[in-house]
Specification:
Elements: E1 4-8, H1 12-23, E2 27-32, H2 38-42, H3 45-62, H4 78-102, E3 106-116, E4 119-124, E5 127-132, E6 135-138, E7 142-144, E8 157-159, E9 172-176, H5 180-191, E10 195-200, H6 211-223, E11 227-230, E12 234-240, E13 243-248, E14 253-256, E15 258-261, E16 265-267, E17 281-282, E18 285-286, E19 300-302, H7 313-327, E20 345-347, E21 353-357, H8 360-365, E22 371-376, H9 381-385, E23 392-397, E24 404-410, H10 414-427, H11 431-435, H12 446-451
Parallel strand pairs: 1-2, 1-6, 2-3, 6-19, 8-15, 9-10, 9-15, 10-11
Antiparallel strand pairs: 3-4, 4-5, 7-16, 12-13, 13-14, 17-18, 20-21, 21-24, 22-23, 23-24
Helix pairs in contact: 1-7, 3-4, 3-5
The structure holds flavin-adenine dinucleotide.
Flavin-adenine dinucleotide binds at residues 8-14, 31-35, 38-40, 44-45, 48-49, 111-113, 139-142, 160, 181, 268, 272, 304-305, 311-314, 316.
Length: 453
């Protein structure tokens, strides 16, 4: 009899585990209480990037004079943007559902929880269903963190989930948190023409990123008129009528019309019966005991944000796939462990930012000898044709072997271009492998080849 796998949560982690395990021969049941595709599609990646894409199109239109285009009658239409986001989500949900169904995955619409180590209960509109499982994947994701010093009213004090899209634009948005999510929202709302203040708890935005990369973004923010409160930690948010005041620990107060909290996720780990099933927890996340993402109960796995690893949709999906391979015994043969250090990530600002592998600052901090080569996009014909010469490509390699260890890209299409460096890092390629590839001309990728010389 085939292995019975029950998955709780149908985001990128759960879907990927389900399709791969079913393809490998498991009998899979997936329980989802909301939308197939998860928060990634409903609240996080998809709507935020759709808003950013509209902001970018709007920015291009407003700055299109140099391209020989007249734009007097252009305007923003939030109702049509809302319909656009809804339609993208509908299409994605339906393609996820079709994929799952095509692999024979049984989809249960309801809320799942463990009743025991091998029993899962699904509460559905029709009643309670009890499922026996040989293996379980918990992939319930996360939600925005709300600190005890803030009260969210979803009108003027917002989490990221309240912003898609706003019925009207905030006159002045104060964004709390200058990590990836915070800076994307600063970019998004300033692209629409809102006044924005960003509370930056350290001395640079994106505190974990290469300082040169962060500096390129700060330069853009300042050019747009964004106010940066550096070295300030928010400690209170108070709404009075149409005004919101954000107090900081250094005594400064940022006053705006709206405040948006972007201070990280909390795992959706409550009410899942994990502890009763014997699963150990760590700060609200599920503790994993090995790189197969097993918990201390060997047939219960966790994937995605709830695993407390790297909260990225791409990572969640790969975790799901790796779990499927392990559950089905494939790890003995073709399986490669997931290496979080080699995960590419991007920040959809303007300029776009992407990086992978070892960063220059990390190499420096570790006292590691590396070769760093940097080429500005301005050196390529395509950047000049695009009327956008900003940004650069940086490749970090081993000076002795030429092996590519990492890289950063700032500029147009950085999220796409980083794939070349990501492949090189994962496959252990050398800089000459990139340099000797016959690339397209004119293309921004020529800067990659130059940096790999
Ligand atoms: C604003 C924002 C933008 C982001 N942009 C990006 C991006 O551009 N690229 C990127 O890689 N990552 C991005 N992320 C991160 C990404 O959204 C998450 O890492 C990803 O959603 C994690 O996937 P997951 O499968 O773990 O969880 P989720 O996508 O959260 O899915 C979990 C699912 O489980 C369901 N669920 C929860 N509890 C139960 C239960 N008891 N029973 C049944 N179902 C349940 C939920 O309804 C949900 O559908 C962004 C995050 C935020 C906040």
């Amino acid at each position: 009899m085939s292995l019975r796998l029950v998955i709780i949560g149908g985001g990128p982690a759960g879907n990927s585990a389900a399709t791969h395990a079913a393809r490998l021969g498991a009998r899979v049941t997936l329980i989802e209480r909301d939308i197939l595709g998860g928060a990634a599609h409903l609240w996080d990646c998809v709507p935020s990037k759709a808003m950013i894409a509209t902001g970018a199109a709007w920015g291009e239109i407003r700055h299109a004079d140099g391209m020989g285009i007249r734009t007097e009658h252009a305007g923003l239409d939030f109702e049509s943007l809302r319909r656009r986001i809804d339609s993208i989500e509908d299409r994605l949900e339906s393609s996820v559902r079709q994929l799952l169904e095509s692999q024979g995955v049984r989809i249960v619409r309801g809320t799942g929880r463990l009743k025991g180590p091998h029993q899962v209960v699904a509460e559905t509109a029709e009643g309670i269903e009890e499922l026996e499982a040989d293996a379980v994947v918990v992939a319930t994701g996360s939600r925005p963190r709300i600190p005890d010093w803030a009260e969210v009213d979803s009108e003027r004090v917002l989490t990221t989930r309240d912003a898609y899209p706003p019925s009207s634009l905030p006159e002045h948005l104060v964004v709390i948190g200058s990590g990836v999510t915070g800076v994307e929202f600063v970019h998004m709302f300033s692209s629409f023409g809102c006044e924005v203040t960003l509370i930056v708890s350290r001395q640079q935005v994106l505190p974990r990123k290469d300082p040169e990369v962060a500096a390129a973004l700060e330069e853009d923010f300042l050019r747009r008129g964004v106010t940066l409160y550096k070295g300030a930690r928010a400690v209170g948010v108070e709404r009075t009528g149409d005004t919101v005041k954000v107090s900081c620990n250094d005594g400064r107060v940022a006053v705006g019309s709206h405040a948006l909290l972007a201070i990280g996720p909390v795992p959706n780990s409550e009410g899942l019966g994990l502890v009763d099933a014997g699963v150990e927890m760590e700060d609200g996340y599920v503790r994993t005991v090995d790189h197969h993402l097993r918990t201390n109960v060997p047939h219960i796995y966790v994937a995605g944000d709830i695993s407390g690893k790297l909260p990225l949709s791409s990572v969640a999906a790969m975790q799901g796939r790796k779990i499927a391979e392990h559950v089905m015994g494939l790890h003995v043969r073709e399986h490669r462990h997931l290496d979080y250090e080699k995960a590419a990530s991007a920040i959809f600002t303007d300029p776009e930012i992407a990086d992978v592998g070892l960063g220059e600052a990390d190499a420096f901090a570790e006292g590691r000898k590396v070769r760093v080569t940097k080429v500005p996009f301005a050196a390529t014909a395509k950047a000049l044709i695009n009327n956008d010469p900003r940004g650069f490509v940086k490749i970090i390699s081993d000076p002795a072997t030429g092996q590519v260890l990492g890289g950063s890209i700032v500029g147009r299409h950085a999220a796409e271009l980083i794939s070349v460096i990501a492949l090189a890092v994962t496959a252990g390629l050398r800089v000459t492998d990139i340099h000797e590839s016959l690339l397209v001309h004119p293309a921004l990728a020529e800067a990659l080849a130059e940096a790999a010389e």
